[in-house]
Design a protein that fits this description.
With about 375 residues, the protein is an alpha/beta fold. It contains 12 helices and 10 strands.
Length: about 375
């Protein structure tokens, strides 16, 4: 097996990392007006420098800023698109975990103006990260996929006075994303990840029923999402590697959907024009590897075999066995290894310690080195 010099790497990770206690305290102080935005950013900068060193030290060849400047993995980006705002209405997402159930509540969104991009979203954040990574480590930027703008509210969230024709909405959304892609590439981004729960959620019959009940075409929604993501990245500059990460929800070690990739697999793997797929495969919720038979030559699958939802460390032997199982459906040369999701998709983080997080990332790097050399 050969080393990979371009993303995704043999040992990789999804993006978000546990926020250190001092950063959480600083966020609270800023919310209370006790420190300024500049003082908060100073704490963020310092925490990001440390977490970038950690990623390098455990043997990873990519590094994110842990999403330390965000409250959530997706809404911090989406609300900065022109034409989109939070509303007073609340959306409840029902999550489950090994111990029971809980609900996550957040503001609904409204599309009440033409969708535009007026700034390079996370541009300053990425420039800082890139300056801190140094030689031999690739700075990775994570943003939500275009479909995440639509999945939360569907057609009902779009003002018909602004977009009487939904096709115009999709055209403007993809154009805004295409401009974001162009801008971050101009900043030196060579590794962009589009995070997407929708394409994994749609494998769950219960989720499809929810979409049908609100008036969406749940049986074909994934085809629309694939087309619009392709439109957003079609003109990406040479040298920019784009991946997508798909999971079934990640909030305080809980999930929202279940089911294998079977429903979307054929269209997803054969049509979505990304360079690699980060797939959640940490337990039975994610189904088997058979859908990987649709992965074409040249596309990379990053197997999310290491869970971020609990601290117990997986064994190398078990990871190697599961990699071998996946290699029955897609060549080993096209496989990589990562956690199944981020460690802290929201600011609260999952239920494990910093040391457990580091141990999992080191395990991934060591296992990948033993499997692929």
């Amino acid at each position: 097996m050969t080393l990979r010099d371009t993303p995704p790497f043999r040992a990789d990770h999804v993006g978000s990392l546990l926020r250190p206690p001092r950063l959480l305290r600083a966020r609270e102080q800023h919310a209370l007006g006790e420190i300024t935005a500049q003082q908060l950013r100073f704490v963020e900068d310092d925490a990001i420098r440390e977490v970038v060193r950690m990623q390098r030290d455990v043997g990873l060849r990519s590094a994110t800023d842990g999403e330390f400047r965000r409250t959530s993995w997706h809404m911090d980006f989406i609300y900065r698109l022109g034409g989109i705002r939070p509303t007073d209405e609340k959306i409840q997402v029902h999550f489950r975990n090994e111990g029971g159930e809980l609900d996550f509540e957040s503001a609904a969104l409204a599309v009440d103006g033409p969708i535009t991009i007026n700034e390079t979203i996370f541009g300053d954040d990425f420039a800082f990260l890139r300056a801190e990574t140094g030689d031999g480590v690739t700075a990775k930027l994570t943003i939500p996929s275009p479909s995440m703008v639509h999945y939360r509210g569907g057609r009902a969230a779009i003002d018909p006075a602004v977009y009487p024709d939904e096709e115009r909405f999709w055209a403007d959304l993809s154009a805004a994303y295409a401009e974001q892609v162009r801008r971050v590439a101009a900043l030196g981004c060579r590794y962009l990840q589009l995070d997407d729960t929708s394409l994994a959620y749609l494998n769950d019959p219960a989720q499809r029923r929810l979409l049908t009940d609100r008036g969406d075409d749940a049986e074909h929604q994934h085809l629309r999402y694939i087309r619009q993501t392709n439109a957003a990245i079609a003109d990406r500059p040479a040298g920019l590697n784009v991946t997508t990460h798909m999971c079934r929800g990640n909030f305080r070690s809980s999930w929202a959907a279940e089911g294998g990739y079977d429903f979307v697999a054929e269209a997803l793997f054969s049509e979505l024009a990304v360079d690699g797929f980060f797939l959640e495969y940490d337990d039975d919720r994610s189904g088997g590897f058979a859908p990987l038979r649709f992965v074409p030559p040249g596309k990379v699958v990053v197997l999310g075999l290491v869970t971020t939802k609990r601290g117990a460390l997986e064994s190398k032997d078990d990871l190697k066995r599961r990699i071998d199982e996946a290699a029955r459906y897609v060549p080993l040369e096209q496989l990589c290894l990562s956690p199944q999701c981020g460690f802290s998709s929201t600011v609260e983080g999952n239920v494990l310690t910093y040391d457990e997080q580091v141990a999992k990332l080191r395990l991934i790097a060591e296992t990948a080195d033993e499997v692929w050399g």
